Amino acid sequence: MAAPRTYWTGHLRLSLVSIDIALYSATSRSGRTSLRQIHKKSGQPIRYQKTAEGIGPVDADEIVKGFEAQKGSFVVLEPEEIEEIRLESQDAIRIVQFVDHHEIDPRFYDKPYYVAPRGKAAGEGFVVIREALRSAKKTALGQMTTRGREHLVAIRPCGDGLLLETLRYADEVKSSDSVFADIGEVEIDDEMLELAEDLIAKKTAPFDPGAFKDSYEAALRELIEEKARGKAIVSAESGKTAKSAQVIDLMEALKKSVKEERAGRSGKSPARKKTSGKTATKSKSSASKRKAG
Length: 293
Fold this sequence. Notes:
Layout: E1 6-14, E2 17-25, E3 51-52, E4 56-57, E5 65-70, E6 73-77, H1 79-85, E7 92-100, E8 109-117, H2 123-136, E9 138-146, E10 149-158, E11 161-167, H3 177-180, E12 187-189, H4 190-202, H5 215-228, H6 250-266, H7 277-280, E13 289-291
Parallel strand pairs: 1-7
Antiparallel strand pairs: 1-2, 2-8, 3-4, 5-6, 7-9, 8-11, 9-10, 10-11, 12-13
Helix pairs in contact: 4-6
């Protein structure tokens, strides 16, 4: 197995403590099937040229970067001007604060990296920080500079190592207020809420990412393999298509869902029970109401 490729090397600093570390990407897209655009008649791949409106194709040395200050009006920045303000790549991640894990809104997480000690001499200090974070149940916050940009980062224990996640800055996350504004307050039936809670409890299990498969990726690979072998592609049986959408009573749907989930757990068909008079006569109008939080 090939050694993992190092993304960044430097030091993790906590006050006067400095530890040699290395960062490795924690994600991979190598398992994804990549499709190219092809010219149908010739079978040749499509390539793109950089063009200027009204000019046509232009050479790379004629291209500079700019910001559209107004519609159709750009502030042009020369390469040397951008280079002057570019931050120097620093070799240290300075821990400046600690927070509880739950305090960081999931919307701020960007990209994960594994952190490991670099060299045997760094092992002791690395493990001390890892175990201190684990014992305190805290996440460390710091900043690091890579490729001329400064990133806010969160660091926490991960197995025998640490996990560093780059974070988005506050102005990079959109507010949800305008999206959720029209939801408003809704009165809900206590029995429906209890049924929904029961359904959640019955379907709760430890997270196992290996239990979930990308069915589209599998179907795409199969399609490619079949076509590469020159086999005819047969569409799926029409008889297995889903039934047309129907309007279903929410209370009835919840009851049926709970019953099916209970039967699935026991491995038996749901038993038919006579409902008591009290339950049978209970109506939505008589059920207590409470407002959704």
